[in-house]
Write a structure and sequence with these properties.
By secondary structure, the chain is mainly α. It has one domain. The chain contains 3 helices and no strands.
Length: about 70
């Protein structure tokens, strides 16, 4: 569960920057593994869909200016 969702569910205090940094690190690692998987012939799209959906949420959260929906 991402930091904001935990906060909104009442499971934690307001997320701190470290929480968001940990989430970004996790997303970067997931993207790396997904791309490496495709490099070696994995053609299952569920992994890419899951990773891109999480990255999209983060880009929206940070209001990334280069993000096009």
């Amino acid at each position: 569960m991402e930091p904001r969702a935990k906060y909104e569910a009442g499971c934690s205090a307001e997320p701190e920057e470290e929480d968001y940094q940990a989430n970004r690190d996790r997303l970067l690692a997931a993207a790396y593994h997904a791309l490496r998987s495709y490099q070696y012939g994995n053609c299952i799209t569920e992994l890419a869909n899951a990773v891109v959906n999480e990255i999209e949420k983060e880009l929206i959260r940070i209001n990334y200016k280069g993000f096009i929906r």
